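Title: Comparing notes on inverse folding

I've been comparing how different people in this forum approach sequence design from structure. To keep things fair, I'm posting one structure and asking everyone to reply with a full sequence. Here's the target:
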């Protein structure tokens, strides 16, 4: 399989579907908003985007199955599976805050071999494939060399439905407010990860995420020289519902700080 070529095809597809999402945002009204759960929003645009992506990805690699956010009835592949978030940052999208993305990964067994994150409004496409560089709109990207949290800008996502770890989350947040350059909540986990890869953030952490939020971005971080683990340094972050992605240099300091609040 030519992973570079396949990645380029997925990049083009993301740009095309992203263009359609940009058009839909102006038409969207509150009556288009549906609830999948408490504070978990979705619109017809998420579903339309997913349908288009599934159709085209299916043509690119007919033997692959799908793990996609808006349809859990899609067939799984024996070896290959596309992991698709058709609109990451739906709450931003619905509130017309211009930061949301498309996230597409391809897994070969349990290994991610291709990842594309397209930030729809700035038209920045971040992508990587196994064994290749990490790129943004054709230019190589790399994580930063920053070695301490005190000089780091950190991204996170606030819990919005699973409040089981809210106390340790807030205690860590309070600590980081005082021990880093600041903490940002952009509203798209895929973009948070892409920004770590591009050297805009030193680190991103969040719990309660799904494979479609993280699979693509995590591969891009790794190919850009970063490190990705679960909260206590373990692998298995794609399906593991918690993630820390960093430039590698601040990873240990962060995990030690986190362990102080999140007892494993
Ligand atoms: C959400 C975004 C957000 C993160 C949430 C995700 P969605 O995805 O990635 O940044 O904090 O946990 O669910 O629902 O907009 O695709
Ligand atoms: Ca998402
Ligand atoms: Ca989504």
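Reply #1:
Here's my take.
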């Amino acid at each position: 399989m030519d992973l570079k070529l396949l990645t380029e095809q997925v990049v083009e597809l993301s740009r095309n579907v992203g263009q359609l999402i940009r058009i839909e945002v102006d038409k969207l009204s509150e009556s288009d908003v549906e609830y999948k759960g408490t504070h978990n929003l979705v619109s017809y645009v998420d579903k339309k985007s997913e349908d288009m992506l599934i159709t085209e990805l299916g043509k690119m690699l007919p033997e692959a199955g799908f793990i996609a956010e808006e349809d859990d009835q899609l067939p799984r592949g024996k070896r290959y599976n596309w992991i698709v978030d058709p609109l990451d940052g739906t709450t931003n999208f619905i509130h017309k805050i211009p930061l949301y993305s498309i996230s597409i990964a391809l897994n070969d067994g349990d290994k991610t071999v291709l990842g594309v994150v397209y930030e729809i409004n700035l038209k920045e496409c971040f992508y990587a494939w196994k064994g290749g560089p990490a790129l943004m709109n054709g230019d190589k990207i790399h994580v930063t060399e920053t070695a301490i949290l005190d000089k780091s800008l950190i991204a996170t996502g606030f819990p919005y439905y699973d409040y089981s770890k809210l106390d340790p989350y807030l205690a860590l947040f309070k600590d980081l407010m005082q021990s880093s350059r600041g903490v940002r909540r952009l509203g798209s986990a895929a973009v948070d990860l892409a920004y770590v890869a591009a050297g805009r953030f030193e680190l991103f952490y969040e719990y309660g995420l799904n494979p479609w939020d993280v699979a693509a971005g995590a591969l891009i971080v790794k190919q850009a020289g970063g490190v990705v683990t679960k909260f206590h340094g373990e692998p298995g972050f794609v399906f593991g519902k918690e993630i820390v992605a960093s430039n590698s240099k601040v990873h240990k300091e962060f995990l030690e700080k986190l362990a102080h609040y999140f007892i494993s």
